[in-house]
């Protein structure tokens, strides 16, 4: 059986990263230009990594699935990015950011990785300010901070409700400079379809030109995957339509472990589902929970009238409103972590207190904030978010409370990586949301941007050198090698098989079926029987897909339906692995909530004596059950406790 070596450095927690950097191997400047690195993805993780590696002197090939890196899904992030600068003088520190993050992940993340993330976060803010990112500032000119869930300090830096966009433009400007210098060769509208392994090491990729349909080969000394998460396995999610898990899944099929696949995040603040023809969901920033108060009616009768449309929310008196998060979690109130807030909303709606026509919504109300601060202050803080909500719902949130409900947002699971961000395949690295390493069972808000930029700017540029230092004598690879032939043939055969099905069902209709299975059985509340049913239904759906999918057009041309079909084939298999992992983990932790394992108050009930490990799944072949390997999570510096956000 394979052994899990996470390569965590020895020594005190606060000194591990410094000790690692002091003793790692380096590549001297003259040798860096002899080494090629493929970076797949141009979101915050991919763009920052490609720009940093090129700035250091490496030759970088960067692959972008969109027509421009500016369209990466990182642009959609709204609320902010965490760092322990303690500008508010409210008691923050690197250790407190580390502890809040590991506690928020329900003690299912690696100590050393999380501490390093907290440690380098302050440098991210300095880097982005130097790039010109227009963070919000206080009256005196200092950078402003606001609060996010799971913390009792204000540590979230933001640029109105478009922080992701501004950070991505900063990374994009750094990347564009390297493209202009010729240090980065940019491939836009290319999608990676396989990774090429030569003598046990990642040495290149096979990618499809999405404009021409041509299958092309690319070789390098190392490959970096920064392609985001797999949340679109649920069909309806807050992810962009092009977001997919295919690159990560192909790495898994070539020997990279897939870690904690069941750990998917439900975001509590999304615009509710409107109908059958909806293709995605829209996130309303967690920052809104700073000033917005979440409530449902106290009386079931009022809830029924709201559902029927015979009562307006403004007609319900203050004393008849149940601010249930403030009631249940007085210490954190509306700023509890996402998994806690999501389950609380589901519990109220399941009890019949939902407030829209489907009964699957709660109110996010700004009337108190408007009375306290004035409409102009609320507008300055959240105006673009309010505009977005009104455009989608045709409802004015300054006058009527927003309606929100939980939805799939982020995936904490992903490709397993060690402390160096290298997968179990030598030379293959994974960064940002594509890896599993920093968030455990639940990600705190404003930590995704932090991890993406930490990995790209401040971690990978060091750790990848430790691998490349002994690759200097390795000559550049020819893409005519038999391993490239074999990988390309495998892709071409797969595409030909898909195109020859000529069935009766569209890709989207099959994807919706997948989404229903995933949400019903692998969603917010999971149980043994449902997970077993999901695995059976997913196997049946896989057969249905490969026997009845309809893909119009030609393979050697621009073909969006073929793109979607290739991704859906992977999503179905990812869904099955998620269900299998959720079935194996007989406990509740963070976003993984097994109904059989909860406290009398309905909170997640962990079983640290049995499940304090990372689930690492190893591929065994088509239609073969994967093998589960376990990386123990031995905590040296933190004592695991039942999470408490009540006092």
Q: What is the name of the CATH superfamily of the domain at 267-408?
A: Succinate dehydrogenase/fumarate reductase flavoprotein, catalytic domain
The gross shape turns out to be globular
Order of adjacent strands in the largest pleated sheet: 5-2-1-9-17
Q: What is the percent of helical residues?
A: 25-40%
Strand content: 5-15%
Subcellular location: Cell membrane
Cofactor: FAD
Keywords: Cell membrane, Electron transport, FAD, Flavoprotein, Membrane, Oxidoreductase, Transport
Family: Belongs to the FAD-dependent oxidoreductase 2 family. FRD/SDH subfamily.
Write the layout of secondary structure elements.
Layout: H1 16-23, H2 29-32, E1 36-40, H3 44-56, E2 59-64, E3 81-82, H4 94-104, H5 111-131, E4 156-157, H6 163-181, E5 184-188, E6 190-198, E7 201-209, E8 215-219, E9 222-225, H7 246-253, E10 258-259, E11 264-270, E12 293-297, H8 300-308, E13 321-322, H9 324-328, H10 338-353, E14 362-365, H11 367-373, H12 375-393, E15 402-411, E16 414-415, E17 428-430, H13 448-468, H14 482-501, H15 507-521, H16 528-548, H17 560-584, H18 608-611, E18 613-618, E19 627-632
Parallel strand pairs: 1-2, 1-9, 2-5, 9-17
Antiparallel strand pairs: 3-4, 6-7, 7-8, 10-16, 10-18, 11-15, 12-13, 12-14, 14-15, 18-19
Keywords: Cell membrane, Electron transport, FAD, Flavoprotein, Membrane, Oxidoreductase, Transport
Subcellular location: Cell membrane
Cofactor: FAD
């Amino acid at each position: 059986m394979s052994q899990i070596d996470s390569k965590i450095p020895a020594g005190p927690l606060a000194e591990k990263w410094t000790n690692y950097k002091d003793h790692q191997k380096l590549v001297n400047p003259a040798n860096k230009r002899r080494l090629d690195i493929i970076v797949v993805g141009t979101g915050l993780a991919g763009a920052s990594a490609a720009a940093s590696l090129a700035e250091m002197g490496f030759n970088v090939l960067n692959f972008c699935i969109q027509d421009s890196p500016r369209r990466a899904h990182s642009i959609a992030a709204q609320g902010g990015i965490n760092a322990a600068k303690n500008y508010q003088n409210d008691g923050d520190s690197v250790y407190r950011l580390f502890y809040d993050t590991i506690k928020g992940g329900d003690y299912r993340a690696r100590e050393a990785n999380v501490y390093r993330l907290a440690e380098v976060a302050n440098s991210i803010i300095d880097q982005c300010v130097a790039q010109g990112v227009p963070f919000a500032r206080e009256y005196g000119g200092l950078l402003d901070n606001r609060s996010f869930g799971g913390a009792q300090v204000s540590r979230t830096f933001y640029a109105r409700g478009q922080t992701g966009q501004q950070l991505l433009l900063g990374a994009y400007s750094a990347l564009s400079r390297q493209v202009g210098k010729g240090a980065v060769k940019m491939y836009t509208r290319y999608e990676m379809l396989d990774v090429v392994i030569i003598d046990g090491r990642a040495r290149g990729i096979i990618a499809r030109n999405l404009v021409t349909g041509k299958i092309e080969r690319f070789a390098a000394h190392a490959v970096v995957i920064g392609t985001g998460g797999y949340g679109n396995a649920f069909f309806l999610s807050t992810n962009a339509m092009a977001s997919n898990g295919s690159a990560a899944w192909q790495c898994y099929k070539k020997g990279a472990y897939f870690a904690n696949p069941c750990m998917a995040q439900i975001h509590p603040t999304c615009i509710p589902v409107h109908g059958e023809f909806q293709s995605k969901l829209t996130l309303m920033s967690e920052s809104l929970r700073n000033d917005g108060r979440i409530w449902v009616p106290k009386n079931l009768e009022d809830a029924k009238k709201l559902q029927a449309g015979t009562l307006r929310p403004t007609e319900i008196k203050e004393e008849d409103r149940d601010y249930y998060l403030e009631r249940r979690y007085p210490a954190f109130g509306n700023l509890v972590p996402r998994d806690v807030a999501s389950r609380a909303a589901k519990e109220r709606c399941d009890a019949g207190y939902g407030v829209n026509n489907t009964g699957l919504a709660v109110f996010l109300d700004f009337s108190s904030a408007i009375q306290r601060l004035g409409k102009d202050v609320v507008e300055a803080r959240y105006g673009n978010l309010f505009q977005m909500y009104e455009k989608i719902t045709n409802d004015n949130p300054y006058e009527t409370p927003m309606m929100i409900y939980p939805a799939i947002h982020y995936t904490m699971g992903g490709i397993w990586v060690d402390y160096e961000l290298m997968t179990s395949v030598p030379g293959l690295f994974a960064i940002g949301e594509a890896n599993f390493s920093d968030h455990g069972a639940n990600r705190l808000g404003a930590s995704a941007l932090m991890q993406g930029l930490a990995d790209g700017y401040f971690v990978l540029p060091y750790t990848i050198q430790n691998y490349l230092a002994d690759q200097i004598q390795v000559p550049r690879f020819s893409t005519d090698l038999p391993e490239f032939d074999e990988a390309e043939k495998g892709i071409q055969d797969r595409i030909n098989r898909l195109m020859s099905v000529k069935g009766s069902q569209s890709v989207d209709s099959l994807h919706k079926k997948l989404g229903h299975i995933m949400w019903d059985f692998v969603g917010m509340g999971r149980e043994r029987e449902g997970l077993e049913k999901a695995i059976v239904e997913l196997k049946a759906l896989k057969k249905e897909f490969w026997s009845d999918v309809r893909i119009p057009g030609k393979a050697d041309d621009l073909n969006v339906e073929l793109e979607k079909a290739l991704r859906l084939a992977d999503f179905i298999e990812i869904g099955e692995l998620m269900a299998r992992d959720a079935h194996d983990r007989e406990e509740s932790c963070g976003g993984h909530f097994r109904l059989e394992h909860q406290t009398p108050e309905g909170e997640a009930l962990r079983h640290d004596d049995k499940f304090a490990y990372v689930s690492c799944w190893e591929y065994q072949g088509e239609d073969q059950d994967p093998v589960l390997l376990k990386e123990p999570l031995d905590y040296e510096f933190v004592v695991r406790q039942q999470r408490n956000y009540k006092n």
